[in-house]
Amino acid sequence: MPGIRKYRRDTTEVSCCLKYVIFGVNVLFWFVGLIILAVGIWAWMEKDTFSNLSRLTNIALDPVFILICVGTITFIIGFTGCVGALRENTCLLACYAVFLALLLLAEMTTGILFFVFKDWIKQQATSGFQSFIAHYREDPDQQNLIDWIQGEWLQCCGVEGPRDWDRNAYFNCSSGAVGSREACGVPFSCCRSKPQDIIIKNKQCGYDVRKPTYSFDIAKIIYDKGCLEAAEEWFDRNLLIVATSAVCTAFAQILGICFAQNLRADIFAQKSKWH
Prior knowledge:
- By secondary structure, the chain is mainly alpha-helical.
- It is built from eight helices and no strands.
- α3 packs antiparallel against α8 (about 240-275).
- The radius of gyration is 26 Å and the shape is elongated.
């Protein structure tokens, strides 16, 4: 019986498995980043931001700006990883590894600073949310973000309570003199949800709730807890989930860096064999 020959993979070959794993994962990130970026640019065009540059004064508070930044970063990382792996381009793979390393460093720095400067971050978050409240009717994206935070996510009202809505020109109690129907009220997202709200959302449930003459029990109509307190409680409840997600994200990024470096080493080894 003839002996069975055993073949050993040439160590200078580029690993197809490694190559297409990097390609497959990053082509997904590439398309996701492109979609996020396109949606962000479209939203800015809908708000006429490019022709009205005065809107850029509050660019840091614009959710669409954050969307564009996230889309751009995701697109660039996905592009360098996808094309770099497919074309076996060591320069693009090096850029991919550097981008992941910088992103990982930024995330770790943010996490450390969050715990070190927790009080300062709380002040900045309070200031930012108060600005959101003041511009609630001026920017539809900020309005939708506040409504989601108050009604869907944290189930709260205002930064520290419903009285914070006095900062908005439409909900200020003195706005009744100029004919604002929302004067001394709160947005509908402050209202406690009811079963019938699934079919038809009552957009007027927050009218007049802060007036001294309001005859109903306010605590049964709207959320009396501020979003700052609600956010702290949410974070305490979900600390394990947040920490696990952060660790998994960091592990995936480290894995991506290692894969890219291993693929680059295979490509260099193959090129040295040819020469």
